[in-house]
UniProtKB/TrEMBL annotation:
Modified residues (N6-(pyridoxal phosphate)lysine): K257
Top-rank taxon, per record: Bacteria
Cofactor (UniProt): pyridoxal 5'-phosphate
Species assigned in the record: Propioniciclava tarda
Protein's GO biological process: tyrosine metabolic process
Protein name: Tyrosine phenol-lyase
Family: Belongs to the beta-eliminating lyase family.
Length: 455
C-alpha cells in the first residue's frame, strides 16, 4: 500500500505517552473493559473516534481570536451562515451544541408518534431521538451493507424497493421523513452514490415525503463519488458536495467530523416553517438561535473548517490514509469490512474471534485486548452499540465490529504502521482472547458507560 504524503505540515505538537503493558492491563480492568472509560492519557494512539478529534488549521485558530461572543446577533453566526450557504447551498441554519442536538430538534419537529422513519442503517443517537418522540426507525439500506465482505462501491445506498414497500404498506402520511446518511458510519463508513440520492429525492418528491440528510461525513462521501461514480471524475469534491446537498430538504450536521472542529453542529434547511420551529425548540434546549450552544469562536472555526474539508488534496490524503491502514491489514489476512470506508477501518470481530459467541461481546473483548496489546484505543460497534429492543432482548446486528477510527489531520501514516503491526500481532494470538459479561448495563446508549468482566 502507498499513500500521498500529508498535504500540510505540523506547526504545533502534542507529545504521546507510552505506558507499560502491565499498566495498560490494569487500566482496562479499572475501566470495566470498556474503552470509553479509559483515561485518554493512557492511550498511545487514540482511534476511539473521528468525532471532535480533528486538528484545526492555522486559519481556524486565527478565526477563533475573532469570535464574536455576543449573546445575540453575533457576527460569528453570520460567517457560519454564509459558509453553509456557499458550500452546501441551504438558505437557513440553526446551530446546535453538536449533532445529537440537531437530531433531537428535527425529531421533535417532523415526527408524530407512531410514524415511521426510514434510514440507511441506524446511528445510535439518531435512532434514540427518533424513538424518544415516538417514531419507529426502519432500516432501508441495501442488503450488501449488512455483509462485511460484500463488494459494492456504494454500500450505503438506500434500497428503493424497501422504501417503496414501506410506503405502500403504511401510506406516505405515515412516513415522518426519510433520513439518508452520507456516509454510513455503522456500515463501515460506506458512501452513497449521487444516483441513489437523486432517486430517493425523486421518490420522496413524488410522494410528498421530506428527504433529510445526516450530512455528518458529506465531504468524505463526495470524495467517493468523485473516485467511483461515472461522470464525476473531473468535478471537484466541493462541487460534488453541493450537488449532493441540492437534492435534500435539509440536514443535521455533527460538525465534529467533516467541519474539522472539536465541537458544534447545526440544522440547515430550505423551508422557513421548519426553521421557525427549529428556533422555537433551540431556545429551550440549546441556546439562542444565533449560537445554539456554541461559542462564537467555535462557529468561526466551523465556518472555515467545513470549507477546508472540501479540498481535494486534503480528502485524497484523508481517505488514502484510512485505505493505507486497511490494505496493510488485508495483506496480513486480518478480517476487516470491505470495501474500506471513509473514516475508519472496521475489524470484523465475528471472523477475528470465531470462538466467542456474539452474546459474549466479541467486538468489546477485541477492543479491550487491542488496548492491552498496544495502547491503541478503538471502539466497539456491534451488539453493545445496538442495545436492546422493546422486549428487553439484545438487538443482534449482523455486523460485529471494532472501529479503528482515524482522526482528521492528527496522526501520520507512520502511526498507521504502528496500528497495523499491533493488530497483526494480536491476530496471531487471537485464541487467547476471552469473551465478556456485563457488570453494569445502563438503560440507554449502553456502549458509553457499561462495564464488563472476562469470562
Ligand atoms: N450522525 C452520525 C453519522 C454520527 O457518526 C454521529 C456521531 C452523530 C450523528 C451524532 O453527532 O456526536 O456530534 O452528537 N458519531 C460519533 C462517532 C459519536 O464516534 O461515531 P454528535
Amino acid at each position: 500500500p502507498s499513500n500521498v504524503a500529508e498535504p500540510y505540515r505540523i506547526k504545533m505538537v502534542e507529545p504521546l505517552v507510552m505506558h507499560s503493558r502491565e499498566d495498560r492491563a490494569d487500566a482496562i480492568a479499572k475501566a470495566g473493559y470498556n474503552t470509553f472509560l479509559l483515561p485518554s492519557k493512557m492511550c498511545y494512539i487514540d482511534l476511539l473516534t473521528d468525532s471532535g478529534t480533528s486538528a484545526m488549521s492555522d486559519k481556524q485558530w486565527s478565526m477563533m481570536m475573532l469570535g464574536d461572543e455576543a449573546y445575540a446577533g453575533s457576527e460569528s453566526f453570520d460567517r457560519l451562515l454564509k459558509s453553509v450557504q456557499d458550500n452546501y447551498g441551504f438558505p437557513y441554519v440553526c446551530p446546535t451544541h453538536q449533532g445529537r442536538g440537531a437530531e433531537h430538534i428535527i425529531s421533535r419537529i417532523l415526527i408524530t408518534p407512531g410514524q415511521y422513519v426510514p434510514g440507511n442503517m441506524y446511528f445510535t443517537t439518531t435512532r434514540y431521538h427518533q424513538e424518544a418522540v415516538g417514531g419507529i426507525f426502519v432500516d432501508v439500506i441495501i442488503d450488501e451493507a449488512h455483509d462485511s465482505t460484500a463488494d459494492h462501491p456504494f454500500k450505503g445506498n438506500i434500497d428503493l424497493a424497501k422504501l417503496e414497500k414501506l410506503v405502500a404498506e403504511h401510506g406516505a402520511d405515515q412516513i415522518a421523513y426519510v433520513n439518508q446518511a452520507v456516509t454510513v458510519n455503522m456500515a463501515g463508513g460506506q458512501p452513497v452514490s449521487m444516483a441513489n440520492i437523486r432517486e430517493v429525492h425523486e421518490f420522496c418528491t413524488k410522494h410528498g415525503i421530506i428527504h433529510w440528510s445526516d450530512a455528518t461525513r458529506l465531504a468524505e462521501n463526495a470524495y467517493f463519488i468523485q473516485q467511483r461514480e461515472s461522470g464525476y471524475a473531473d468535478k471537484s469534491t466541493a462541487d460534488i458536495a453541493k450537488e449532493m446537498m441540492s437534492y435534500f430538504d435539509g440536514l443535521t450536521m455533527s460538525g465534529k467530523k467533516d467541519c474539522l472542529v472539536n465541537i458544534g453542529g447545526f440544522l440547515a434547511m430550505r423551508d422557513e416553517e421548519i426553521l421557525i420551529k427549529a428556533r422555537e425548540w433551540v431556545v429551550v434546549f440549546e441556546g439562542m438561535p444565533s449560537y445554539g450552544g456554541m461559542a462564537g469562536r467555535d462557529m468561526d472555526a466551523m465556518a472555515v473548517g467545513l470549507e477546508e474539508a472540501l479540498d481535494d488534496h486534503y480528502l485524497e490524503h484523508r481517505i488514502g490514509q484510512v485505505r493505507y491502514l486497511g490494505e496493510r491489514l488485508l495483506e496480513a489476512g486480518v478480517p476487516i469490512v470491505t470495501p474500506i470506508g471513509g473514516h475508519a477501518v472496521f475489524l470484523d470481530a465475528k471472523r477475528f474471534l470465531p470462538h466467542i459467541p456474539q452474546t459474549q461481546f466479541p467486538a468489546q473483548a477485541l477492543a479491550a485486548a487491542l488496548f492491552v496489546e498496544s495502547g491503541v484505543r478503538a471502539m466497539e460497534r456491534g451488539i453493545i452499540s445496538a442495545g436492546r429492543n422493546k422486549a428487553g432482548e439484545h438487538n443482534m446486528p449482523k455486523l460485529e465490529m471494532v472501529r479503528l477510527t482515524i482522526p482528521r489531520r492528527v496522526y501520520t501514516d507512520r502511526h498507521m504502521d504502528v496500528v497495523a503491526d499491533a493488530v497483526i500481532a494480536l491476530y496471531a494470538k487471537r485464541d487467547e482472547i476471552l469473551g465478556l459479561e456485563f457488570v453494569y448495563e445502563p438503560p440507554s446508549l449502553r456502549f458509553f458507560t457499561s462495564r464488563f468482566t472476562p469470562i
